[in-house]
Write a structure and sequence with these properties.
alpha+beta; single chain; 3 helices; 122 residues; four-stranded antiparallel β-sheet
């Protein structure tokens, strides 16, 4: 099953502007996906939110996937980058949005996520 996930930084702050942080998070997301049994098809990290296209088993709920992605990535980021630049040591906001995607929509969603990354570069 394919899902398009989006989730924000804590309080919508633009804390992910640094390329080093984004690269660290992308590699961390890949490790989490391999450990938890789902595949990240496309991922783009913007300064205040993340887009992901994930293929997952029907046995995994969207909330368990996001709990793993957000919880583990935040913990590892704070271990790697010891900074007080994050308010209350929170990286991600509490909510997320997940939308089930049909195989017909897959190419359009990948294009949408890539276009979002191009908008960041402008």
């Amino acid at each position: 099953m394919l899902y398009h996930y989006t989730f924000n930084t804590y309080s919508g702050k633009q804390t992910l502007e640094d390329k080093l942080l984004r690269d660290f998070l992308k590699s961390t997301f890949a490790v989490i996906a391999a450990d938890k049994g789902f595949e990240i098809i496309e991922c783009e990290i913007l300064c205040d939110h993340v887009h992901m296209l994930i293929e997952q088993s029907y046995l995994l709920s969207t909330s368990s996937v996001m709990k793993s992605v957000k919880g583990i990535s935040a913990r590892r980021l704070f271990q790697e980058f010891r900074t007080n630049g994050f308010e209350h040591r929170k990286l991600w906001g509490r909510s997320f949005h997940a939308r089930k995607i049909s195989s017909d929509e897959k190419a359009a969603i990948i294009g949408y996520i890539k276009k979002a990354s191009e908008m960041r570069k402008v």
